[in-house]
Amino acid sequence: MVASECEPWAKTGGLADVVDALSRALQVPPPTGPGHEVDVYLPYYRGLTPPEGLVPLELRVPVGSPDGQPRHETVTLWSGQADGYRLRLVEHAPSFDRDSYYMDGAADYADNAARFTLLGRAALEAIRAEARPVDVIHGHDWQAGPALLSLRHRYRGDPLLAGSATMLTCHNLAYHGWTPRVEAWQLDLPGSVGKHDGIDLLREAINLADMVNTVSPNYARESLTPEFGGGLDDALRARGDRYIGIINGIDTGLWDPATDATLVAPYDGADLGPKALTKVDLATRNGLDPDGPLLGVIGRLDPQKGFDLVTEAAPELVAMGARLIVLGTGHPQLVAGLQELAASHPDRIAVLERFDRDEARRIYAGADLFLMPSRFEPCGQGQIIAMRYATPPVVRASGGLADTVIDADEDAELGTGFVFGPARAEALVDAVGRALAAMDDPVRFRRIQAAGMARDHSWLVPAGEYEAAYRRAISGR
C-alpha cells in the first residue's frame, strides 16, 4: 500500500480508515481471512506518533531537479508492526515536517508533486534494497500516482519490480494532483508523460494501473458520467471492466455499541433498551428536549454533503416535532445559517462546530435517525456506522448510500433506512416524515433497526473482493 493517510497515524478523512482497515483485513490468517503480508508506506508527518519498536533503514532515492541533472535524496524508512501489517514511515523533514499534509493555508504546497514522488520512490527503493519482490503495489488517490508512474517509466526494466502488478483506488475523483508543465521536473519522468500544459497525476495513474476501483459499485457507475466523473469519466470508461466498485466496510471492533466506552449505556441487538438512555444523555448534554424524535447529522459542512438541504429543511423538521443535532466544521455560510436556527430553537437544534470523535459516537448511538443527504458520496461510512448502532439512516440515493441502505417502505423485511432521490429540501422532509411514521409503529421500527444491525458491515467481504481484483491485476500483467 502506498498512501498519504492511514488511521490512526495520519488522517483527514475516510481514506485513512480504508487503508488501515483493509490492510488489517487482508492479513487475517485463514480460514477466516486471506492471510496476505501487507506493507503500508506512509509519510512521517510532523506530529505523527509512531508505534514502538520501529527500525530505521537509510535509502538513497532518485528525485527530479529543475536542470534535469540526476539527483538523490536520503530518506529514513522506519519499519515496524502495526496491528498485523508492517507500517513503513518515510522520513524526510524537508518534505513532511510541515504544519499540514497537503496545503499551505488555502493553497496546495507548490512542491506536492516532489513530496509524493519521494514517497513512491522510497517504497520502490525499499523493495529493491530488500530484494523481496511484491505481487501488488496498491496506490490510493493521486498521491500514489507518482509511485505507479515511476514503476512503469523509471523502473520498468528492474528485475525486482517488473513483475509487480498495480492497483489504484480512487477515493475522491475531485482531486487530481495537477502538476503544471513548468513544475513537471518534480516528478522525474520522461517528457512525453502528460499533456503539453501539465500532468494530471490521477488520470495518468488510471491509465497505467492494471486494475482501478472506487469505493462503491453505484459510484463506479455514476463516475462514468460527466456529472460525477470529476473530468475523468472518459479515462474511467476507457478502462472497461478493469474499473470496478468495491464497497467499503467498517472496523466492527472499533464500532460496536456493545463495547463502546463513550456511551453511558452500551447495548446490543438482543436488548436495545439502553439505547434510550444514550438518547437522553445526548440530548441533555447539548441542551435539547429529549421528549421527541432526535435526528443526528455528522460530517463536513459542505453543499456536497447536502448540509444546505438540512439547513433549508430544518424549520419544517422542527415543526414536525423533531430535534436536530449537527456535528461538523466547514463552509462558513452553512455554519452561520445552522447557528442562527439553533439560536431561534435552542431546545430543538444544537450545532457543534468542531471535530469530536467521542461526541460523534454518542450521536450515532443516541439519535433516533441519522441524516446523510449527500449530493454525491463515493461510499460513506456514517450511514454504515449508524445502522451498526441501530440508528436508521435517511439518505439520498447517491453513490455508496444507494448501495448500503435499503428503503424500508420499498422492502418491509430487509429495509434498513429511508432513501430519497432529488437533492431538494422537500424530498428530505418527505423521507424524514416517512421515518417518523415508522417510529410511531414500535414493532416495525424495531424490525428496521434489527435489519440494519444484522448486515455484515465488516471488512472481510470487501477484502475478498480486493483479493480477487489483485489476482486480476496479476493475471493482466
Give a short overview:
With about 475 residues, the chain is of the alpha/beta class. Helix content is about 35%, strand content about 20%. The protein has 16 helices and 18 strands.
Can you put this structure into words, describing what you see?
With about 475 residues, the chain is α/β, with parallel strands linked by helices. It folds into two domains: about 15-250 and about 460-475, Glycogen Phosphorylase B (Rossmann fold), CATH 3.40.50.2000; about 275-455, Glycogen Phosphorylase B (Rossmann fold). The protein has 16 helices and 18 strands. The chain has helices at about 15-25, 95, 110-130, 145-155, 200-210, 215-220, 235-240, 275-285, 305-320, 330-345, 355-365, 380-390, 400-405, 425-440, 440-455, 460-475; strands at about 40-45, 55-65, 70-80, 85-90, 105, 105-110, 135-140, 165-170, 180, 200, 210-215, 245, 295-300, 325, 350, 370, 395, 420. A six-stranded parallel β-sheet has the order 15-14-13-16-17-18, with helices on both faces. Helix 3 packs across helix 4 (about 145-155) and helix 9 (about 305-320) crosses helix 14 (about 425-440). The two termini are about 20 Å apart. About 50% of the residues are buried. The mean pLDDT is about 95.
